[in-house]
Amino acid sequence: MDRFDRIYHLHGLLSNRRTPISLKQIQAHLECSRSTADRAIETLRDYLNAPLEYNRKAKGYFYNQQSSSKPYELPGLWFNAEELHGLLICQQILQNITPGILSKQIESLDRRITEMLTRDNIPQPVIAHKIHFAAIGRRLTDDSHFKRIATALFSNKTMRIFYRARGDNEGTERIISAQKLIYYRENWYLAAFCHYRNQLRMFSVDRVNSVQILDSTSRQIADDELLEFIQASYGIFTGKAEHTAILEFSKSRANWVSEEHWHPHQQGEWLENGRYQLSLPFSDSRELIMDILKYGSEVEVIAPDFLRQAVKEQIEAMQKIYK
Hints:
alpha+beta
């Protein structure tokens, strides 16, 4: 336990006690010598202005909270070494989710954390060398629109966007009320109420070509309605799930798939032959078909018939290419 952790831990000991704690007990909790415990007490009392006093009758230290209207807290942003390392990992995750997004803000956070580590002589691991992110299929590279969308979302303001749908590449101008940013399969999506369509819609952030934040307050959708919109069907496609896919996986893939999360409302069942059956709701089958095909001969579509037929047609089309 380093100096920073000892002070943090000592503060926790004193804050959670109603009776004085002896120096020997402090040494035991902090796992240190008497002189080290004395230095921690001195730092907390003299440098951090804690209301730390010694009760001669009880032969112990305590916080005198009578002189203040609220309990004493360590000043400023105060973390122990483990928490600071956790922050560094979070910072690295943010930086790698989409390079360029909020880069200046993340760099500022990194500097603040480094300063805290340096100040308290805590080892500074090079997190970037310890964690590897394998990003596949990432599309968004410019964060200018992302920042404005996030600003409108957090300030509950409507925005005017020019959106170019990926399917037909048709561009339209929309007035939308942002509801929730969603990070899905290495890319950002925005669930928003579209005033042009008068319904909830899902927008791919990388297809937004311009953003103008308006003065009007955004229309807010109830949490249960929004959750139903986002989670009702399979994948990023929204809408009421009208079908249930039943997939049967081979013995060799069963252990993998049984531990995978495909959908909040999925149902899994082990079969007597050692295979694994997965059932999940869907409306639009396009993304589901892609996920089925990646398992090749290790999966069979049991139902519905039209999904089975669609997968079969894709396999036949592939055979024509590779014959």
